[in-house]
Specification:
Blueprint lengths: L2 H6 L2 E7 L2 E8 L4 E6 L6 H4 L1 H6 L5 E6 L18 H15 L5 E6 L1 H12 L4 E7 L7 H9 L8 H11 L1 H21 L16 E6 L8 H9 L4 E5 L6 H4 L1 H13 L1
Parallel strand pairs: 3-4, 3-5, 5-6, 6-7, 7-8
Antiparallel strand pairs: 1-2, 2-4
Helix pairs in contact: 4-5, 6-8, 7-8
Length: 263
């Protein structure tokens, strides 16, 4: 097979990491390795199609994963103890090392952004650059109200609900989404909302924080907090962006991220 085939094709595989068979997709042959980290209940398939297709495959090797209990990394069933983001961070880093990447950059959306923040703070020697959007270091009572407002997945738009039902089936999807919300409520109650605030100042790698100014799930206070407490970080606001800005405005997002990663 020729080099062009290996650059452009998207492979799908599993790797046993920390006792779980984690599913991932990989494409490109660039020297700069990237890991794409999906949001709550997300997967490589549901969350990163435009990035797997269109990020520069000569400059980057792009990996997108399904965290344990999500997507095609089932079994096990997903659980949400207080330290689940830390478990995901360890799994993510161990997966990239098992794939023989000595260092790599992290692109994390929403929950995946939280996981990426933790990984960048705890494994500074491995993480080259960091991009997060729709992420937060804490959960507030205001956030809980936003989550509870969308607890009933039958009221989601067809575009938002359909890929999740296709991936999980209606019952697993509804049950797991409710369990995620309950997990965040526990964090707010038992940890005063602190997900990873204590780790944020430890992030040393170049960091780009992107925020959609029309994001209905993540108030502006969250990216502002990250920008203030991650030394040297850059905050980029997308005026029309919502929570899924990397899907809705994929071309603009990909261009912005590539420029940051290459610079």
């Amino acid at each position: 097979m020729n080099l062009l085939y290996w650059c452009t094709t998207i492979i799908s595989a599993k790797k046993e990491i920390n006792g779980v068979h984690l599913h991932y997709q990989q494409t490109g042959k660039g020297n700069h390795a990237l890991l794409l980290l999906p949001g709550a209940l997300g997967s490589s398939q549901t969350d990163f199609g435009p990035q797997l297709e269109s990020l520069n495959k000569e400059r980057f090797t792009v990996v997108a994963w399904d965290p344990r209990g999500y997507g095609r990394s089932i079994p096990p069933q997903r659980e949400f103890p207080l330290d689940f983001f830390h478990t995901d961070a360890r799994d993510a880093v161990d997966l990239m090392q098992a794939l023989h990447f000595k260092n790599f950059s992290l692109l994390g959306w929403s929950d995946g952004g939280i996981t990426a923040l933790i990984a960048a703070s705890k494994y500074p020697g491995l993480v080259h650059k960091l991009v997060v959007w729709g992420a937060n270091a804490s959960v507030t009572q205001e956030d809980i109200k936003l989550y509870n407002a969308v607890r009933d997945v039958s009221r989601w738009s067809e575009n938002m609900r359909k890929p999740m039902v296709e991936m999980y089936g209606a019952e697993y999807f509804a049950k797991t989404w409710a369990a995620w919300i309950d997990g965040m409520i526990q964090t707010e109650k038992e940890r005063n909302g602190n997900i990873c605030k204590d780790l944020i100042p430890q992030i040393k790698c170049p960091t780009l924080i992107i925020h959609g100014e029309k994001d209905p799930m993540v108030p502006r206070s969250h990216p502002d907090y990250l920008h203030k407490h991650i030394k040297g970080s850059r905050l980029h606001l997308m005026a029309k962006g919502k929570h899924n800005l990397h899907l809705r405005f994929a071309k603009e997002f990909n261009s912005l991220v590539e420029e940051f990663l290459i610079s």
